[in-house]
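User: Here's a chain of 139 residues. Predict its fold as tokens.
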Amino acid sequence: MAAALRAAYATVLATLRLYSNQLTGSIPTELGQLTSLQYLWLYGNQLTGSIPTELGQLTSLTSLSLYSNQLTGSIPTELGRLTSLTELSLRNNQLTGSIPTELGQLTSLQYLRLDSNRLSGSIPCEFSNLKALSTKKCP
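Assistant: Prediction complete.
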């Protein structure tokens, strides 16, 4: 029964807003099973660890806000699968590595914040595909 109930919620939950709390620990990989999710706002917490690659399965997602946490590691290339995304904010974390070229596939993206991390390298030339982008902030 519990598994069936979880599966039912996974197909109908459209919005998950847990921002500006004092949540700790890592982002659960199981969030990748919430296939109807359109808004995932976990910003302003104390979340640690890496961004789960499973978030790349949330193809209905239009807004992903994970800013102002303590996330580490690189930006997953799988986020490039989120082609419905209009807003992506990963700013003010401790993310490292280069900006994935796959983010250039997010052609619906209107808002992108990657500032205040520890990213390195250059801005991918694939960002020229982001015609809807109104704000580009990179370190």
